[in-house]
Give the backbone structure.
Amino acid sequence: MKVVKFGGSSVADAGQLQKVKNIVTSEDNRRVVVVSAPGKRYSGDQKVTDLLIKLGESIQHDQVDHEVYKMIVDRFQSMVDELNLPLNVLEEVRKRLEYSMEQVQKKEAKAIDSLKSCGEDGTALILSAYLRQEGYDSSYVNPKEAGILVRDEPGGALVLEESFDQLYRLRERREILVIPGFFGYTPEGTLVTFSRGGSDITGSIVAAGLQAELYENFTDVDSVYCVNPMYVDRPKELTSLTYREMRELSYAGFSVFHDEALIPAFKAKIPVCIKNTNNPSAPGTMITADLPDRDSHVVGIASDKGFLNLYVSKYLMNRELGFGRKLLQILEDEGVSFEHAPSGIDDMSVVLRDHQLPPEKEEVVVGRIKEELKVDTVIIERDMAMIMIVGEGMNQTIGIASQAACAFREADVNIEMINQGSSEVSMMFGVKTEGLADAVQSLYRTFFE
Amino acid sequence: MKVVKFGGSSVADAGQLQKVKNIVTSEDNRRVVVVSAPGKRYSGDQKVTDLLIKLGESIQHDQVDHEVYKMIVDRFQSMVDELNLPLNVLEEVRKRLEYSMEQVQKKEAKAIDSLKSCGEDGTALILSAYLRQEGYDSSYVNPKEAGILVRDEPGGALVLEESFDQLYRLRERREILVIPGFFGYTPEGTLVTFSRGGSDITGSIVAAGLQAELYENFTDVDSVYCVNPMYVDRPKELTSLTYREMRELSYAGFSVFHDEALIPAFKAKIPVCIKNTNNPSAPGTMITADLPDRDSHVVGIASDKGFLNLYVSKYLMNRELGFGRKLLQILEDEGVSFEHAPSGIDDMSVVLRDHQLPPEKEEVVVGRIKEELKVDTVIIERDMAMIMIVGEGMNQTIGIASQAACAFREADVNIEMINQGSSEVSMMFGVKTEGLADAVQSLYRTFFE
């Protein structure tokens, strides 16, 4: 059996839900469906989840924003109308929404989570009703009923191990099950949402629990591209990737989905297929544990801006036991998370995401480094970009580094930093942001043309 | 004025001392001379310092090794005889030696240091007597008289700041001063030696204290080579280097001298010239603070064997605040010093000198990493070599990385690791030891032929 997940744009309106119905019913073994909240129908439109957050804030400030409330209900109403569904379906969606609004008004714990999840919940209710109306046996399954148990954490819900066994029982059900994404329940019964983009997480958990043969993740692109289409016109599509490649690519600028969302599926070794709701016959991108048979060693070029380099130098640093550890300790004390820490003989750099070190924190961190480590120099260089070339087995291939370095030279972009040595799947280069586009284009020509 | 230092082979016998006299007296401003203990006169010969250590050990075991004692005295006697010096010179050398032996016998604190320093001390006594006999005004100056004050540390003496002011007063002296290298005195008056190779340190301290215009370091090679002559036949000689380049080169296999020895001279911005006692007209290698005018950006290729890579992987490592710090903390707790720590998304490598992690310590460290960090994998890969290409401004030159990477490809050697990003002066590559020679030769062809 397959678990099929549809993203926000795939369930944005009645027309999209018709495509979803066609996709789900075109194969007998697409038996479990996970849905997001309705996304944007056109550029400039608002996502239902954003509207729900606005509504929640207005209630918290004791000024219910009726206009936003109406916009939310209208989104669901137009779906129900256009699909000719019975009116009680909309009633159920409204009931759930109004119950959550009351909870927020009463300032109940986690009431905002309950309100935020109404987008997914309404979509699931509507989709299952629509499938039934079209003659298919289908049920809405609430995550509590499905057994998605979570622990409430500051960054969002974390799935509990027992969920997987509970979910496995759903295999006995014969009808098409529609589960809203984005939330689960604590063992005490409180609804808690995952981090943003959390419907991918639900899909991944459900696929893992059900031990699905495949987890299909439907979005609005035909496949994962080998490079950000912002830099290269119509880049090559990736037909296959390994989990590790996907994870490394997701790290730097591959925003097809949240890189952590797939982890439950990865751990259970469920293959994942990224497909397009608007063009379901396209083969999509298959993500598997094992290395697929293929020619090229480089499968993708990921890139991201917004890094900074914290450079520290001190004479005889390399004789000082614990220097590197002490530097990282200061960052940790100040809650600053770092990405990489390449070191020379008497100097060390620490690469961070720019937002990790706002000016006020920079002052504290630089002050502590100067005082506690008695360094000679501390320099902060912002406007750094990272480029990552990714491919299984790449590090064992003689010449990849030289091809990459030649590409930078051809683009006339200086490599500020190279980080290779730990990951067997990737090689990372730091450049000044101004050189990013040229470098990525040159790497694309080198490895893909 | 210039401070001139002569190494062990430059003072190995009377013939060498004649060369030293000629070099010192050929320029009026070579006014302060620092000498090592007599080194090997031929392959298979023994260094006087090694003999002194043997002698000391025999005394500590209450079995004075008279044969070794005689070998030491013979070395000095033949110098005195061949240079036709008055007999009282030898008497003085013997007196000093026998006094130190008695101290060791009495188990006085630091008596071994006193004994170990008799090689330099005797050489200085003989050289100054020889200069006087040849008609030059010259004095032996004991480090206590010179004002070389040190603190006793486990790794060897550490110079105290006040030494520099004291040494400055020697500028008033008009004669040629001969100072034995390798030792200083604590403020309480105890003789303490520097770490092995410590005559370079004395020379460097004296040059800094006297604010010499130049510190000339005479050895037995015409200059510093751009690569280890073990790998390349008659490699290019370096006419100039910056301090930073020298320091980076010294780190990995450039054993012309101890990399820390030059630090006092570096800090005082005294230029250093490496010259050959046996060919003093050769220009040598000049080491300065400022970047000399020159074409090539790569000035040297250093390399060293005996590294290992400790590889650790853990799913979602990059979201775990403090992971890198905790890993380094474990190493620090176990007294293991690391060189570099390149990191991927979910993995991290730590490069160490092989001897830092003997098997019994490996077990403890690997056990702690597994237990405390709950990692997925820990792998130790030995037989790693590091190659470093060094040159000021190199990191700002587009194309150096690509030339280097091409050289590895041409040598058919896989790059296991690249560490570039912190030092502005070097780029480091990790390879398997079996590929080291081929890679170094290929890099040499690329950058120097």
